[in-house]
Amino acid sequence: MLNKIVIFGVGLIGGSFALALRKANAVGEIVGVGRSLHSLERAKELGLIDTIASSVEEAMRDADLVLLAVPVAQTEAILATIKPYLQPQTVITDAGSIKGEVIVAAQHALGDRIVQFVPGHPIAGRETTGPDAAVADLYIGKKVVLTPLPQNAETHVALVREAWQQCGASVHLLSAQEHDAVFAAVSHLPHLLAFALVDEYARRDNADLLFNYAASGFRDFTRIAGSSPEMWRDIALTNQQAVLLELDTYMHQLSSLRVALAAGDAAALESVFANAQRARHAWQQSIEKAEPQPQQDRDA
After folding, report:
1. SS3 at position 28
2. CA distance 255 to 273
């Protein structure tokens, strides 16, 4: 039982974390902190939080766990604000999609109090944002990756792990370097591709005609282009080198496909399509076998 948790950023990720812990009867008091008073008032109205903090000092008093569910570029400033009020029993974690740069930011902000910061990343989400997007079952059957630091006490890692498990998530451990390389490929690059495609169509003279006839294939491929531009700007820039590597690799694949298409090489095209189909089916089956799915799939 967590007596008190503090959430910086009570939107989809932070709000869903709050709702899930409340549904599991795993938390006493939930305090919200954020840039927008209107958003915090809405979060309280929806029952995501019990209290809107009047100050960081008040929020941090007797806190067991703090979750930073904010764009990664805000991490260092928030941690620096927290540090003067950080009590010995309090553990901080985050929900950022980047871990290397977040850890560097935490080291700068917290100094020797870095021992109380356990980096994390829930692999779940939707393209909608804000308090109204929060749902209690967002993390059921989903993965959460923790990238513990050598300085972290086992009890601190265990507290964060158990909090996410109370939300219904499966917790995995990776190094920060492994995490950033993997998610550059399977998350950051796909978001760039979706944003780029929709942006390119939106700038055409016949954009209205294109969107008028776009159907389920376009909707499914571009769903994540509805995600927060601020958040994904920060992710792209903070994981720049890994994302550039994946983008270059993908551009090489597109170039190969263009050569095959221009040459009318049906066998080459079908080989790529068939290999992709087999891999996609195998991946989907592994998810269904390993992770019980909620009624409505909400993977990011």
Report:
1. strand
2. 15
